[in-house]
Every structure is written in structure tokens, then in C-alpha cells.
Amino acid sequence: MPQYARMKTAIPGPRAQELLALMRRYVPDAMAPAVPTVIARARGALVEDVDGNQFIDFAGGIGVLNVGHAPPEVVQAIVEQAGRFLHTDFTVVPYEPYIRLAQRLAAKAPGSSPKKVAFFNSGAEAVENAVKLARYATGRAGIIALEGAFHGRTYMAMTLTSKAKPYKARFGPFVPEVYRVPAPYCYRCPLGLSYPQCGLACVQALERALVTMVAPEATAAVIVEPVQGEGGFVVPPPEYLQAVRELTARHEILLIADEIQSGFGRTGRFLAIEHFGVEPDIVTVGKSIAAGLPLSGVIARADLYDRLGEGVVGGTFVGNPVACAAGLAVLDQIERQDLVARAERIGAIARRRMEAMMERIPLIGDVRGLGAMVGMELVRDRRTKEPADQETSRILRRCAERGLICIKAGIYGNVIRLLVPLVVEEDQLQEGLEILEQAVLEEAGVRS
């Protein structure tokens, strides 16, 4: 008997149908939701819709809710700050929440180099400003990104993003001086090789690009996601990022780590780059930074920021005081509840369950991830690795109908990804995994 996923109506229920009809009339279809209902309230890892149906949330607002829906301590910080003041523009009159949040994030960044932090509104804005900083500080234009990357939807971020549909098709031309090299996607190696016999051929491809595409002295930065998010929860080999760091340092090229989806404890470290023993020059953070309020940041070596002139970066709403207050409360909750360790526990449970499923279900081609950032790639044939994209969509629909919110990723749309809030209770996690397993079994035609 389900304890947490409770469905009073089919979805969408009557009230949700009314609201979704208004949505179709007034909101572009390009914003169509993954789950056909409308939220009324949420707390922790549970979501209730306008018809009283209750869902277990494995999507977490696409990685935004590491500390859960509406954590009381964060809500209280928001209320208190809103009662003091909502806005000044930090470059007109600065305020303490911005300064304190910068101080704490600078201390959490890996490596011994002194750091400074600037805040923005979204992950894409953080990426844009990381690129601006890299170009300004080096006097170089070239930016190298990876296949399968996702860095946002504004024009520089969209240029860096790899997947054509739906993100880039018919939106060109794109920003110049961006170059792309193969990613360390070992399950689907773009070079057709096998790890570790490949000898990190993807790093060799990067080194070759500095000869065939853009000269080192014209290259400002290489940008990587320590774990690719939208690209399919792709985890690089342990030594890959170390090799990239050594190569970039040799040529005085900056290394940008995009931690927007993988940061704030998601992978069992505060930042995913910590798993690899690498100090990047610039780190972008966002998503879970403020529990759902719009906020992002660029953490960088202080000497890079010190090369900027006055007024070179900024924006009217960037580093909003209410969002910064929320950010401080988020850090408090991550530390008080030891959510970094909790992510390791969640990931271990999910990986064991998914790997056991893979032994029984040929539809599952690969299970991978770090901490609570776990993905399951579905294929029609394990030998050919033909992507099971339609099957993935049907599985997610079944999950939603039974009270589990789950979303997909991957360059072929065939990876089911786990971004459950790190405050999820263990029985909620197990119930959600049971719903997911039954949906996959039904799609695969395997008896439970």
C-alpha cells in the first residue's frame, strides 16, 4: 500500500484541467510541462497538486531543491529579509547577505588560491559572466566546450550547449570563437574506443584541438561540467579532469567548472570537482544555491577578478538581498543536516536498486552517477545501444500517474535521472524507487 504517493484522481484532475486549459491559451507551448498537473503546495520531497494528489518528487525542480521544498528555516530567512528591504542594487548600496554569502562560498571553493564571488540571477547568466571574466582576464577569445554539454539558454550559454534540438535549432547564428571537443562519455565513446584502453583519447582530442582548431595563445578557457547534467549524468574517468587541468595549466588556459546542477552537495561533495582533486580557476554555481529563488554565482581566483575594471560586470537584480538571505540559510541547512553525507547514502541506495534492475531488465543499458546524481540509460538493444527514447517517455508518464515525479536527460532523451531532494526520507526514497521499477518492468514486459 503506497504511503506517500496518493492519487485521488487521474491526472490531470478536474481543477488541474481547468488551469492547464488556461495555460494552453496564454502560455507558449514551448513551456509545456513534464507532469500534467498543477502544484498547490510542497514540503520536503513531497508535492501536492490542486486536486489533492500527492507525489514523491525525484526531479527537485531540476536539481534546485537539494534542501527540499519550502524548508522552514529558509522560508523564515526570506520573510525576515523581505521585511527589511527587497532591493537596492548592490552596486548602488551594498548589503550584508551578499557579502556574507560571498565569504562563505569563497571558503568552500576547492584549492588554496584566494577567491572572490559575484552573484547573478540564473545559471546561464553565471556562465555568461564566467566567459566574460575568462576573456577579459586573459585577453584571449577562444572557449572550448564539450560534446553533450549544457550550459544554459542565453546566446553564449546556448552556443556552449551541445544538443541541437530542442535547445539550438533555428536560433543561430551563434557566438563566435567557441570550439567543441569529444566528452569522456565512456558508455557511448564518440571516438569509438573503450576505457581504460583508450588512454584518455578525449584528452588527446582536446590537445589536438589546440593545434587544429584554435591556438593555445588564443584560448581563454575550457569549460566542463564535472558531471554532465542534461547530457545524461555522464561521469568522467577519475583521471580525466586531472589531465585536462594539467593541459590547461601548461598553456595558461583557464579551467571553468560548471557546477550549476552538480553543486551544493548533490554528488556527495559540496562541489563535484572535489571528487577529482582539481582546483578550477572559475566555478559557476546556481540551482540549489537559494532553494528556488533566482540566484547564481561565479566563484573565481581573486587575481582574475582583480583585473576587471569598475562596473565591468553587474546587473540590476543580480545578488538580490532576499535570494542571498535564502542562500545563507541553505548553507546552514546543508551543514546542520549533513546533507553532503546524506547524498552519498541516497546515491548508494539508488545505485544498488537500479543496478539490480539492470541485471533483470535488458532495457537498462547503463547505471551511473556520483552521490545522489544518478542516471539510468535505457536502450532497445544492449549491443547496438539504440536509444530507447520513446520507452523512456512512456515510463515517466506511468510514474507520474502513480505519484512519482521523474524527468529525463541525455543527448537522446533516454536517461532517467535522479535529482531527489537530499532531505528525502528513506521510506519515501524506497517507495519512489519501487514505483520507478514497476514502470520500467511494465515497459520492458518483464514480470515483477
TrEMBL record:
Entry EC number(s): 2.6.1.19, 2.6.1.22
Cited NCBIfam families: GABAtrnsam
Official protein name in the record: (S)-3-amino-2-methylpropionate transaminase
CDD domains per record: OAT_like
Homology family: Belongs to the class-III pyridoxal-phosphate-dependent aminotransferase family.
Species name: Geochorda subterranea
SUPFAM superfamilies according to UniProt: PLP-dependent transferases
Gene3D superfamilies recorded: Aspartate Aminotransferase, domain 1, Type I PLP-dependent aspartate aminotransferase-like (Major domain)
Keywords carried by this UniProt record: Aminotransferase, Pyridoxal phosphate, Transferase
Class of this enzyme: transferase
Record gene name: gabT
Gene Ontology molecular function: 4-aminobutyrate:2-oxoglutarate transaminase activity
PANTHER family, per database record: AMINOTRANSFERASE CLASS III, LEUCINE_METHIONINE RACEMASE
Protein's pathway: Amino-acid degradation; 4-aminobutanoate degradation
Reactions this protein catalyses: 4-aminobutanoate + 2-oxoglutarate = succinate semialdehyde + L-glutamate; (S)-3-amino-2-methylpropanoate + 2-oxoglutarate = 2-methyl-3-oxopropanoate + L-glutamate
Cofactors named for this entry: pyridoxal 5'-phosphate
Domain of life: Bacteria
